[in-house]
Design a protein that fits this description.
There is one protein chain. The chain has two helices and six strands. The protein is an alpha+beta fold. The protein has one domain: 60s Ribosomal Protein L30, Chain: A (2-Layer Sandwich). Helix 1 packs parallel to helix 2. The longest helix is centred in the middle third of the chain and has 19 residues.
């Protein structure tokens, strides 16, 4: 099985990883953070989701291809604020992704939220 890297030009990386990998119709995106978006969880959630949108576009799919999302929060008390932004982002999706959300202290670069998604490119397997 051949793997393909998914990248967006100019994206800041925080370690030795590929922003996304596609193989056999599966798409795995690395955890997305956006500390440059602002100091609050709503801004950082919006920024992380925008990065996910860009990576999905680079992979040739859209949000409806997401099957699972994992949300890591620096502080679980930020859950409601994150969920407000995330909920608007998935609102128009026909089938919303399965999701886990939990507190995971000390996220990279002092981020308040990190979001990981897995998706399927159905075009590959039709």
């Amino acid at each position: 099985m051949q793997k393909k890297a998914i990248n967006v030009a100019g994206s800041k990386l925080y370690g030795p990883y590929t922003p996304g990998v596609m193989a056999g119709g599966m798409i795995w995106l690395s955890g997305q953070i956006d500390v440059e978006a602002g100091d609050d969880v709503k801004s950082q959630t919006s920024g992380a989701l925008a990065k996910i949108d860009a990576l999905l576009e680079a992979a040739g799919v859209g949000r409806d291809s997401i099957c699972f999302a994992q949300v890591l929060l620096d502080d679980i008390n930020d859950f409601a604020a994150m969920n407000e932004i995330y909920g608007a982002w998935v609102e128009d999706m026909k089938i919303k992704p399965a999701r886990a959300a939990f507190e995971a202290g000390a996220l990279p670069a002092g981020a308040k939220v990190e979001i990981v998604v897995q998706a399927i490119d159905s075009k590959c397997c039709e």
